[in-house]
Amino acid sequence: MEVWMSIAVGILFAVAVYLILSRSLLRIILGTSILTHGVHLLLLTMSRLKSGAPPLLGEESGSYVDPLPQALILTSIVINFGVTAFFFVLAYRSYLKLKTDDMEEVKMESDE
Amino acid sequence: MTNNLLIMPLLIPLIAAVLQIFGMRHVPIQRWLGGIAVIVNVGVAVWIVITVRVEGIQTLAMGGWAAPYGIVFVADMFAALLVLTTSILGAVCLFYAFASIGEEREKHHFYPFFQFLLVGVYGSFLTGDLFNLFVCFEVMLVSSYALIVLGGTKRQLQVTLKYILINIVSSSLFVASMAYLYAAVGTLNMAHLSQRVAEAGQDGIIGVIAFLFLIVFGLKAGLFLFFWLPGSYAAPPSVITAIFAGLLTKVGLYAIIRTFTLIFYHDTGFLYTLIGWMGIASMVLGVIGAVAYRDVNKILVYNVVAGVGLIAFGLATANVAGIEGAVFYMLHDMIVKALLFLLAGIMIGALGTTNLKDMSGLIKRYPFTGWMFFITGLALAGVPPLSGFIGKLLIVQGGMERGWYTMTIISLIASLLMLYSVMRIFMLAFWGKDRPLIDDRAVFQDSPEVKREVYHEWSPFRPRRLMAASSVLFAFVILIGLGAGWIQTFVAQAADVLVHPTLYIQAVLKE
């Protein structure tokens, strides 16, 4: 199972990098979102996939699932949600102001 | 020693920020809350430094969960000194902002963002847990996204898009490297990590993970991977740039120093040499940029990059002198870089331009600012008896002890060029023929629009208050220089923990 997950992580990373390298701002934002999804999946996979009991004391203490990576992923998802939302708003705002969503043109203007 | 004091530097600005959000319609309330919070925090920071000085490393386990399982906050002398410097910088920059940031930004949540930024910075310094470091980094970065774009000029929007993108990618890499590290050793508490990595040995997979962390923190600190930095830092108003230059890159550097002295300290050959060369490369490229540009903000921003390089070089020497030098120079660098931007803010505010070609003759109207700038420039270069001297001397000594003669000489030449770049600002902007100030010029009175485009729109300009705020930092530049021997004892205590990771581990895991 870990192997398949790793391949999935690889595909997500590849898609994300492809999107981030494109010129349209919306694609870039989607790319960052997919990148963080890939990272979360990586975090889950790296801490071993296993099906077991919830980590409660005294109940089947041998077959715990490690709760830590899940807590980390949850935190990371929340942060990513906020950042992506902010990024979208910023993209909309800069589209209104700069009249373009093409990163090439954004860059050209800044060089003056 | 468990001590609830450690949560205070985070709690105070956090509460202040939340209250400020509720009082968003009343700027005076926001100012009072912010002012009180930063001043109380200076007191708390002094208290933390004294406690660490007297009783040794302080820890705080959240909710009473013991170290490797729960979340811990740790204040060793290094973190405590950085918290103190941050609190001073935060206070000065906030009071500078009162007189320069402008009502429009004040009404749009400048003060809460400022406080949240401080929360993130304090958290990054105090946390004893790698994942919390990530969270605090994000708190800091999200606030910095907002601060950098606040005001919404074209230039700001352009740079913020890139700034956010680069930071999201590096944060993703941060989480990915943490995933690898967790898989390899099964913990994220820094003291525990140090133990586990020492048992497992730092070769093969862990070496690669260490390298990944170096890339991640290098991106955040602007160590060699600083391509995003000059554009982003030159866009927002001076006070925001000052707080960024003083704090954000230094948090990245702190993370490098912490992880590479506490966790990945076994491989002093390849990785440390690499850090050393990255430091030298950022110094060289930084001074080339500083000498090449004719824009005040750009010159100073490239100086920030060069400063980061020198501190990293001090760390890379991996001996007591070099690390003491890195700590000392870092404290000095935070204050001096912020001060330079604050003084540049006065210059830009007076003349309404950032281009040196259009600046001259300021010394007649602003003699005090001029000489402060001159002396700060000397401090930057490490001229005794100012604040940069001891730090630079120790770093050079460390480099010599390590046998890196070429690199040390390059770093000295780079320091000279740093001095040259700042002196050039001084000569061009303060000497020469007198120019009308921005408010005197008819063209701006006719069309306020032009003024908005040139100078960061809406901003009021009250030079006396700005000078008063800057002179507080300036006093520190002098005092650190004169009291170097006394401060050296604190720095030595900080470096002692960095050189002997077991002290840190014992304090956190209590074995």
From TrEMBL, chain A:
<keyword id="KW-0812">Transmembrane</keyword>
<feature type="transmembrane region" description="Helical">
    <location>
        <begin position="28"/>
        <end position="49"/>
    </location>
</feature>
<protein>
    <submittedName>
        <fullName>Na(+)/H(+) antiporter subunit C1</fullName>
    </submittedName>
</protein>
<dbReference type="Pfam" id="PF00420">
    <property type="entry name" value="Oxidored_q2"/>
</dbReference>
<dbReference type="GO" id="GO:0005886">
    <property type="term" value="C:plasma membrane"/>
</dbReference>
<comment type="similarity">
    <text>Belongs to the CPA3 antiporters (TC 2.A.63) subunit C family.</text>
</comment>
<keyword id="KW-1133">Transmembrane helix</keyword>
<feature type="transmembrane region" description="Helical">
    <location>
        <begin position="69"/>
        <end position="92"/>
    </location>
</feature>
<dbReference type="InterPro" id="IPR050601">
    <property type="entry name" value="CPA3_antiporter_subunitC"/>
</dbReference>
<keyword id="KW-1003">Cell membrane</keyword>
<keyword id="KW-0472">Membrane</keyword>
<feature type="transmembrane region" description="Helical">
    <location>
        <begin position="6"/>
        <end position="21"/>
    </location>
</feature>
<dbReference type="InterPro" id="IPR039428">
    <property type="entry name" value="NUOK/Mnh_C1-like"/>
</dbReference>
TrEMBL record, chain B:
<dbReference type="GO" id="GO:0042773">
    <property type="term" value="P:ATP synthesis coupled electron transport"/>
</dbReference>
<feature type="domain" description="NADH:quinone oxidoreductase/Mrp antiporter transmembrane">
    <location>
        <begin position="128"/>
        <end position="417"/>
    </location>
</feature>
<dbReference type="InterPro" id="IPR001750">
    <property type="entry name" value="ND/Mrp_TM"/>
</dbReference>
<feature type="transmembrane region" description="Helical">
    <location>
        <begin position="269"/>
        <end position="293"/>
    </location>
</feature>
<keyword id="KW-1133">Transmembrane helix</keyword>
<dbReference type="Pfam" id="PF00361">
    <property type="entry name" value="Proton_antipo_M"/>
</dbReference>
<dbReference type="GO" id="GO:0015297">
    <property type="term" value="F:antiporter activity"/>
</dbReference>
<keyword id="KW-0050">Antiport</keyword>
<feature type="transmembrane region" description="Helical">
    <location>
        <begin position="109"/>
        <end position="125"/>
    </location>
</feature>
<feature type="transmembrane region" description="Helical">
    <location>
        <begin position="70"/>
        <end position="97"/>
    </location>
</feature>
<keyword id="KW-0813">Transport</keyword>
<dbReference type="GO" id="GO:0005886">
    <property type="term" value="C:plasma membrane"/>
</dbReference>
<keyword id="KW-0472">Membrane</keyword>
<feature type="transmembrane region" description="Helical">
    <location>
        <begin position="163"/>
        <end position="185"/>
    </location>
</feature>
<dbReference type="InterPro" id="IPR050586">
    <property type="entry name" value="CPA3_Na-H_Antiporter_D"/>
</dbReference>
<keyword id="KW-1003">Cell membrane</keyword>
<protein>
    <submittedName>
        <fullName>Na+/H+-antiporter, MnhD subunit</fullName>
    </submittedName>
</protein>
<dbReference type="InterPro" id="IPR003918">
    <property type="entry name" value="NADH_UbQ_OxRdtase"/>
</dbReference>
<feature type="transmembrane region" description="Helical">
    <location>
        <begin position="131"/>
        <end position="151"/>
    </location>
</feature>
<feature type="transmembrane region" description="Helical">
    <location>
        <begin position="466"/>
        <end position="487"/>
    </location>
</feature>
<feature type="transmembrane region" description="Helical">
    <location>
        <begin position="239"/>
        <end position="257"/>
    </location>
</feature>
<feature type="transmembrane region" description="Helical">
    <location>
        <begin position="6"/>
        <end position="25"/>
    </location>
</feature>
